[in-house]
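Researcher: First entry.
Model:
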Amino acid sequence: MKRVLMLASVASMIDQFNMPNIALLQKLGYQVDVTCNFIEGNTCSDERVAELKQKLQDMHVRCYQIDFARNIKHMGQNMRALRQVEGLMKQNGYAFCHCHSPIGGVVARIAGHRTRTKVIYTAHGFHFYQGAPVMNWLVYYPVEKVLSRWTDVLITINHEDYARAKKKFHAGKTYYLPGIGINLERFHAGDVETIQQKRQELGLQPEEVFLLSVGELSDRKNHVVVIEAMKQLVQRHSQLRYFICGQGEKKQELQQLIRKYHLEDHVKLLGFRTDVAELCQAADVFVFPSKQEGLPVALMEAMACEVPVVCSRIRGNTDLVKNGENGYLVSADQPEEYIQAIEKLLRIWKNTEEVRQMRKNNRARIKQYSLQKIDKIMENIYR
């Protein structure tokens, strides 16, 4: 039986993005090994990582701890990771390695080149993009261009990245993949009972409007801009309640900002959650203020649950949201634009037909990103 290596810098990327790929590879007859950092840098809880390792073990997947650092500045730690991955490739003679994340992609392609191991690299959104900081272009673009020569298959997940990779890079093959696939059987509009139960769990009153965000508590996910908007919104709309799912390094900073603006009754940090589908079903508006995305899973899951969205006008988001059709696009760093978009949704709320159409448009649009469609594309790539 041929062996393949699934590689990411952190375990949360395996958990959130690659379990369907692992199942597909096993279906195709491969023995799958997984390597990542199970200990540090994850965006999910330690308990969730432990559950992931147990699930992989139950699937007869071998797991290897690699000491990746998420920060590109930690060169010593990532050089150690390179030696570990190179040794693993030499030892096991993989048919190919499927790697993810910028750090994982760099390490895997260098190790693959040295050991003559075929490499498939999924770019979950290049760090250089239209409007990106100049430093991102100076640091990441040259690295990706050089390493594309050691990339047998490059998979991009949004139209901007695909066009640039086809024109500027040198991978053996380049594909556009519409995301990682959304489980439409799990993410769908909720029934009345589910919605009421989840709202009660959150302490929401019937007249209150439930705004939801899902994402790591980091600068990139940009939750601070919505909290800034809420400072003004609640003065005019006291019925608004904003909940944020996720954990990360910005938790304390966000908590301090909530206290500073006296928003304790209006803004709540829920931490890492395993009931995201039910939360999306219960939400009235999904707010997604991220500064940088590839093709955002959280946004697609909310759309599958037929939630109207307010999101930043950035690469990836613009692949999914058409202004006024299934939500509103706003400037990522402008609280006033979030205020205007949320108030616009509040104004049309009484026009049930307009809101109903927006919900239907979200569900219809997301069908092309279903897990079944993505699996068919990945099966052709893996073969």
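Researcher: Second entry.
Model:
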Amino acid sequence: MMRSLDCAFIVSFIITIIFNGTQIQVKQPVHSISVHKNRVVFTDAQGEKSAQFSTVNERRDFISKLVNS
């Protein structure tokens, strides 16, 4: 007797981004991103998180990694 195998897979990715020695874990998918000056607040599968950056370039690099990951 052959049985069928019913499976469901939930795939989520946790990405660790390191800026200035600080690790920021992002669990995909990212639901929203908000920016005010050099502060970035984002909501991922684990909830709301924020990060403060020293320069505009750091902020842009971080947002790029959030969007492209």
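Model: Note on the second entry: Strands lie at 14-19, 22-27, 32-36, 39-44, 47-52.
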